[in-house]
Amino acid sequence: MKKLATAFVALLMTTLLSGQETGFNKFSIEVQGGLHLPLQLLDNINSSDYTDFRSGQIGVRYMFNECFGAKVSYGFNSFEDKENSDFGVDYHRVTLEGVYNMQLANRFGILAHAGLGLASAAPSGIDENENTAIFTLGLTPQVKVSNRVAVFVDATYLVSASQQYYFNGQLIEPNFASRTAAFANFSIGATIFLGKNTNHADWVKK
């Protein structure tokens, strides 16, 4: 987890030091939470037993212009059997994503985002964590509340490239062979726009 935290801070500082041009604001902070749903690697579990409101994410986004940007985020998912808390796995992840802004009206737009990162999975009852590459793809419809705040919903598909444990924390194979897992996050959240200008890049095209 220390490596993930270090990577997150490094990416955050790189983003913040990249500067901001005049004309419109480019930085924003995003906070969200919601439901996760296991989709792949379901051999020995019922997906509904591990579908719950146990996910969250915080990120910093920088828009290079009104269309394209980048986002660095820290996210958390806690998969736990609803009937037995001894079974589950926790994911901590840091991701870097490209962002494309589709502004459709004065106060409505959709952000498409995709990227990759590193996840640390902590199976229940296991002292050591396993690290895996993670890939993300999602859409974020958002509504402008004011020049400083927007609210959004988000749907993101996440793929864990190589993991040795199921969502219930049990080992997949005795020889520690790894497999691909996937899950989806469905979140609601808020964006805070930062900067000295009146408008943010998300809202300058209309």
Task: Specify the CATH architecture.
Answer: Beta Barrel
Strand order of the largest sheet: 1-2-3-4-5-6-7-8
Q: CATH first level: which class?
A: Mainly Beta
Query: Biggest β-sheet, characterized?
Result: 8 strands, antiparallel, barrel
Mean pLDDT: 90
Structural class: mainly beta
Order of helix and strand elements from N to C terminus: HEEEEEEEE
User: How helix-rich are the residues, as a percent range?
Assistant: under 10%
| Content of β-strand | over 45%
Report Rg: 18 Å
Assign an overall shape: elongated
Which helices and strands occur, and which strands form pairs?
Elements lengths: L1 H15 L10 E14 L11 E12 L4 E13 L7 E16 L4 E16 L6 E15 L4 E15 L15 E16 L12
Antiparallel strand pairs: 1-2, 1-8, 2-3, 3-4, 4-5, 5-6, 6-7, 7-8
